[in-house]
Amino acid sequence: MKKKAESKEVNKNKCKFIPEHVFFADFECSTDGFHKAFNICYDSEDGSVSESIWGQNCATEFLERLPDKSLIYFHNLSYDINFILRHMTEVKGTPIIKGSRTMQITGLYKGRAIIIKDSYSVINKKLKLFPAMFNLQTGPKEVFPYNYYSSTLLANDNRTGVISEACKFIQDADTFMKNIDSIKGCRIDENHFDLEKYSTFYCKQDVRILREGFVKFRNDLLKEFDLNVYDYVSICSIANKLFENRVYFPNGNLYDLSNKPREFISRCIQGGRCMLSDNMKQKSEKKLIADFDAVSLYPSAIARLYTLEGIPKVMKEEMLSTEYLMRHLFDDDQKEPIGEKFMSGFFVLIKITEIGIHRHFPLIVCDPELNPELNVPRSSNTCCLMYVDHITLQDLIKYQ
């Protein structure tokens, strides 16, 4: 029993590590029926290692080649992880997943610790935009007959393709033929080409562009902000750390929240809304429809507003009324407590009992978790319970 306990502790510690090796990788997969990986290409951080593995066992062979304490980036990990996860010996900790996006998975493969991260969560742009963003060399135009690379064609690790058949799955046949001739050893004869060489050429090109763009982005962050992108999961976590270093910590009067205070305050945050006027479908054949999409709301709020300082205090019973809160709330341009105006902000659970103005796009958010008896859209002119901060409450009073 003692040996087992020690083994578990070793594995636990093994997954808390500073990466010693960084790789960038990409799978090529058949897209008919059950998607199957038939090729993987990967580069080391400095490009000194640039390899490809062909065949139905490419995922396991890739894992076999990884050294201990490796960090691997895929651009859209949510897709690529499907070909690796089933082969890992053990997944450690809780995978970081946001919605449908897999951002990070940590685990072991035959005793070797690996972290797999999603580069798209850091740079949320398509790979084809990287060359312009980071001033990179693009290489030949990509013309790839994805649907031709079917599971039937690739059975038994077949490497020979028929050019005339592949041309049925592309629009630019001339460029496809030129590419076959430009890739060393790709053309087998007049009507046959090497499936592996063609696939590997473009897969390697994508991996190179990912590696060069990501490394340049990392170097720029290190130079400008002294932040190592390898330490973070997403661009949001990087931005938060930058705020901590340059705003929160230097202030000296800002605090991290946890447990009940954090849970309560977080419920006052309402996500972005997507709705039609009055939540009603409308058909307009002659009039133009205005699609109002407000952007940059967070940076706008950060620039215009302020951050509440100090440790939050629990309200007393006599403070729990709208009249009291509005009477003692800071004025808009006030920075220090003065007389009766001693409250810089608040977070409360309110009960809306009356609605003065019925808006086409109401400010009221009816959370079904908080109001299970109400079967109404989230944004609706409905009396309900609602978590709000002081700004939201002021807006509700003024505009609704």
From TrEMBL:
It holds the Pfam family DNA_pol_B_2. GO terms for molecular function: DNA binding; DNA-directed DNA polymerase activity; nucleotide binding. It catalyses: DNA(n) + a 2'-deoxyribonucleoside 5'-triphosphate = DNA(n+1) + diphosphate. It is an enzyme of class 2 (transferase). Gene3D superfamilies: Palm domain of DNA polymerase (3.90.1600.10), Ribonuclease H-like superfamily/Ribonuclease H (3.30.420.10). It comes from the Eukaryota. The keyword Lyase does not apply. Signal peptide: none annotated. One of its GO terms (biological process) is DNA replication. SUPFAM superfamilies: DNA/RNA polymerases (SSF56672), Ribonuclease H-like (SSF53098). Residues 66-312 form the DNA-directed DNA polymerase family B mitochondria/virus domain. Belongs to the DNA polymerase type-B family. This is DNA-directed DNA polymerase.
